[in-house]
Specification:
heterodimer; A: 772 residues; alpha/beta; Rossmann fold; Dimethylsulfoxide Reductase, domain 2; Barwin-like endoglucanases; 3 domains; eight-stranded mixed beta sheet; six-stranded mixed β-barrel; 22 helices; 30 strands; 30% helix; 19% strand; B: 172 residues; mainly alpha; 44% helix
Chain lengths: 772, 172
């Protein structure tokens, strides 16, 4: 064996290591460049340029599209910023009369609505009844839908989402054509129904639409349960006017408008008030009537109102004197707090009476450039439909848009039992919810950012004639699955969805055995051309259309719609005192982010803390702090509310900002099937409601239920998702409120205590009877 | 000698971390779906960079040219070349060419091409002599120190508005 010296060994080992390492290093480098997946993505970091770059697009420079927000019925104008064909950011359209460049959180959420992973990507159908929904092609889904609609001639019904679709002139025109063709009932459903408001306005001012309260012109605003800065009817519009009202350019330095809120709960809107008058739930119209009596109108007397509402006579007289001082620069606003009895329309009229009496200069009406005929709506017509479904008189039910009776109707209405008797349910929707997930056929429709449509805003700004246009800002056919190609080596689109109008047109053409002559855009254009002064058969090159599209709609000054207060008439009011059966009044409010529950599936909406309670990812019961103290309930303890028809559990939030005989709860959570963010989050109070219907309009009075309350268990330390743990993002040690809110609450609570000394111990006993 | 050997080993040791910073830089560049000859277009034909990357002077990004830009000339020129056949296949199938991205700043850096082009900075200052590259590669490590070396040098020349060294110039 050859001896190797130490020197030789080291030399050899260094050389061999260097060769080995060097060789492997070079080889490794080559592979590495092909496979690198580091910070910058390496080989996987691809750039896909356009094949044919559209004229006017510059890489890195955004393209803005003007469109209309479809997240609620307010119809704000949007500018959507797009890059490379993708929507990136939503801003307000500064020229739009409703929002003038502003958006609310729900407008910002529209991108999550668009890019939601729980969207219906392709048409779905059940192969047999009881089977699962399976992806099918459009031809199969449309053929089956059309034959189901044709077979059900006279025994079909179309249920329309009253918040968005029923506000679109073009969509309603097509749905009306469809319903006439197959002789179907056309019913709209919106939980927070504007029909009582419209009916009251029609009676007082002769106009069947929600009035525009120009609070920026007012010195005194009195809201009777109207949470106009939150969910309904047009939060961005009123938010903007409220800023003007407080510190607008036309105000003298140091002068601010005064705002009084009458209602049992310190809502976010109420927390902006100078004076909060926490009346008994459901007595807002009686207070309005008493104030009307004091300012010279015909109403109930102040002593009676004080006894019923729990306010002091002095408070009512003070409010009346404020109103007298403000004279015409006063406006009274009703709102979603008034849905608390079977006479909602009278309640709205009682508030409007004050405007009529004071000849308010702040009530105006805008003009709908493209009026929508309001189809039959309200809970009453829906209940009669449910009745017919139960008796087997409906063979095919079509649901247009995110209409969700399985969630919105009380359990007593028996929607599920009724819908089980309908052989075919067709749903045109972008999301599967409690109702559409039970459907036989789901026609995957596009969201409002991907389709041609139009909208007549819920509140039309005074003195303006307005119609708002929706155009697609993104083409979903170009959103493709990564690394997946079909047999022709073409990229596979992520979604195969169609515009709402295209689907209805396809159904109509199949029913008429004709080929569809129109597409989503041309059908919208046909609705609009008469208003633009263009003959309906004008060529596509007509200039007025691109101008309209780039503006996001049409608006111009209108003098036709000014309201004449001299001709306005006060309506008779018969006071309806809410039942005093010793139970709590359950006040439900549409949530500022979730609306009526339709936005609970958006992560940001869940993640944003509620402005008053700061709770996230949950529902909560707001209970008066002193009542909670007497009952031994602390923040986060799980309590149970029980009505005649059921119970609902959830965490308690003791708050000084609520009347002692009222429990408040947000609407919008407690979904059982609505995507990954909403399902099994919180609880749904709508299911335990009594069925109370407004006598005049048939609207759903969702705050008219009375409940008992019992504590189930203490809050546990730590977070337990299955135990409804309450998460308050902004913890307030020792109940510390922001100073302004604190003053408002404590002044009000002091007044309340001095007005009604020691009245409630017996009532409280009654209200918390054991219920199990 | 052992010490030298260990130093050599450390020097030649293969890159084991998933860090592109050191390995990505330098020739050869990664394989592209289509062998585009920069040396022909730039060195031999003297076509200016902005002829194809035309948004560099107007936008924050310098674009990868759309396929129709290539097709504008190559529907007639060198049609029998094997690489042009690949181009034709992409164009006629209406598919974009999936180029592998060479130069990129991380998301927290807002680099703006148009500002640099307007200040007269030549493309080759950062991108190297692309005309001499057979497969394009990133010539230098584009880290913050490298940016600042130039910005500091030119700060006085352009002060106060150009070549600023404020954090918010790029990180916002």
């Amino acid at each position: 064996m050859t001896e190797i010296s130490r020197r030789k060994f080291i030399q050899l080992s260094v050389i061999s290591t260097a060769i080995a390492v060097g060789a492997s290093g070079c080889k490794n480098e080559a592979i590495w460049k092909q496979e690198a997946t580091g910070q910058y993505g390496g080989m996987a970091n691809k750039v896909y340029p356009y094949v044919d770059q559209p004229g006017g697009t510059i890489d890195g420079i955004p393209v803005y599209y003007a469109t209309t927000c479809g997240m609620c019925g307010a119809g704000c104008g949007l500018y959507v910023r797009t890059m490379g064909g993708r929507a990136h950011k939503v801003e307000g359209n500064p020229n739009h009369p409703v929002n003038q460049g502003k958006t609310c959180l729900r407008g910002q959420l529209s991108l999550q609505h668009l890019y939601n992973p729980d969207r219906v990507m392709r048409p779905l159908m059940r192969s047999n009844s009881g089977g699962n929904l399976q992806e099918v092609d459009w031809e199969a889904a449309l053929t089956k839908s059309a034959s189901a609609l044709a077979d059900a001639h006279g025994k079909a019904a179309i249920l329309v989402d009253g918040v968005t679709i029923a506000r679109s002139p073009t969509k309603m025109r097509l749905l009306q054509e469809l319903s006439t063709h197959i002789d179907a009932k056309l019913i709209q459903l919106s939980l927070v129904d504007d029909s009582p408001w419209r009916a009251a306005a029609a009676a007082c001012y002769g106009k069947d639409q929600i009035p525009d309260y120009r609070i920026d012109h007012a010195d005194l605003v009195v809201s009777f349960g109207g949470n106009f800065l939150e969910a309904w009817p047009s939060p961005v519009y009123y938010g903007r006017l409220f800023g003007e009202f407080r510190q607008g350019a036309h105000r003298k330095p140091g002068s601010h408008g005064r705002f009084v809120y009458v209602g049992p709960r310190l809502s976010m809107t109420a927390s902006r008030a100078d004076i909060w008058l926490p009346c008994q739930a459901g007595t807002e119209p009686i207070v309005a009537s008493a104030v009307l009596n004091e300012v010279g109108g015909k109403g109930v007397n102040a002593e009676y109102a004080a006894a019923v509402s729990g306010l002091s006579r002095a408070q009512i007289l003070h409010l009346a004197s404020l109103i007298k001082d403000a004279a015409g620069a006063f406006v009274a606003i009703p709102g979603d707090g008034l849905f608390s009895s079977a006479s909602v329309t009278e309640a709205f009229a009682a508030v409007e009476n004050l405007n009529v009496r004071m000849k308010s200069e702040c009530v105006m009406f805008g003009e709908a450039m493209l009026p929508v005929e309001n189809p039959l709506g309200g809970l009453r017509s829906l209940l009669s439909l449910v009745d017919e479904m139960k008796h087997g008189n409906i063979d095919t039910l079509m649901l247009a848009g995110q209409v969700n009776p399985a969630y919105h109707l009380p359990a007593d209405a028996n929607w599920r039992a009724a819908v089980a008797k309908v052989p075919t349910v067709i749903s045109l929707t972008s999301f599967l919810d409690e109702t559409s997930s039970e459907a036989e056929i789901v026609l995957a429709s596009r969201t409002f950012l991907e389709e041609w449509s139009d909208q007549t805003p819920a509140v039309l700004p005074g003195g303006v004639s307005l119609a708002s246009l929706t155009q697609p800002v993104i083409d979903p056919t170009y959103i493709t699955k990564r690394h997946e190609v079909d047999s022709n080596n073409h990229p596979v689109p992520m979604m195969d969805t169609r515009e709402h109008n295209d689907i209805v047109l396809a159904l109509l053409s199949r029913l008429r055995s004709s080929s569809p002559l129109e597409t989503g855009m041309s059908v919208v254009r046909r609705t609009w051309y008469p208003q633009l002064g263009v003959p309906p058969d004008a060529p596509d090159t007509d200039e007025s259309w691109p101008n309209t599209v780039s503006r996001g709609g049409q608006w111009r000054k209108s003098h036709a719609a000014a309201v004449s207060m001299a001709a306005a008439s006060a309506q008779d009011f018969s006071a309806q005192v809410p039942a005093q059966d010793g139970r709590f009044a359950l006040l439900l409010f549409p949530h500022i982010y979730h609306d009526d529950g339709r936005h609970a599936n958006l992560g940001w909406a869940q993640e944003m803390p509620d402005p008053m309670s700061s709770a996230v990812w949950n529902t909560w019961f707001e209970i008066n702090a002193s009542v909670a103290h007497e009952l031994g309930i602390r923040t986060g303890d799980i309590v149970r509310l029980k009505s005649e028809s059921g119970y609902v559990d959830g965490p308690a939030v003791p708050s000084p900002g609520i009347h002692p005989e009222t429990v408040a709860m947000p609407i919008g959570q407690g979904h059982t099937a609505y995507g990954r963010n909403a399902t099994e989050v919180g609880s749904n109070p709508l299911s335990i409601l009594d069925i109370t219907v407004d006598q005049k309009t048939g609207a759903f009075a969702f705050s008219a239920t009375r409940v008992t309350l019992v504590k189930l268990r203490d809050a546990q330390a730590g977070f337990h998702a299955e135990q409804d743990t309450l998460v308050l993002v902004q913890d307030r040690p020792h109940g510390a409120e922001p100073p302004a809110v604190k003053n408002l609450i404590h002044e009000t609570a002091g007044e309340w205590r001095s007005g009604r000394p020691g009245a409630e111990s017996k009532v409280l006993e009654e209200r918390t009877k054991p219920i199990l | 000698m052992t010490f030298v050997g260990l130093l050599a080993a450390a020097f030649f040791w293969p890159q084991m971390t998933h860090d592109r910073k050191t390995d990505w830089v330098g020739a050869p560049g990664p394989t592209q779906p289509l062998a585009f000859y920069h040396h022909v277009h730039v060195d031999e034909l003297h076509i200016p960079c902005a002829y194809c990357h035309w948004t560099a002077s107007t936008s924050r990004v310098a674009n990868y040219p759309s396929v129709d830009v290539c097709w504008g000339c190559h529907k007639d020129i060198s049609v029998m070349h094997p690489q042009i056949k690949i181009l034709r296949a992409y164009y006629l199938a209406n598919k974009p060419i999936p180029w592998v991205r060479i130069n990129e700043q991380p998301g927290y850096v807002h680099f703006v091409h148009s500002a640099h082009v307007a200040a007269g900075v030549a493309c080759a200052t950062c991108h190297g002599d692309v005309g001499s590259m057979y497969t394009v590669y990133q010539p230098v490590e584009m880290n913050m120190g490298w940016c600042l070396a130039c910005h500091r040098k030119l700060e006085k020349k352009f002060h106060p508005h150009q070549a600023a060294v404020d954090c918010y110039t790029c990180h916002y």
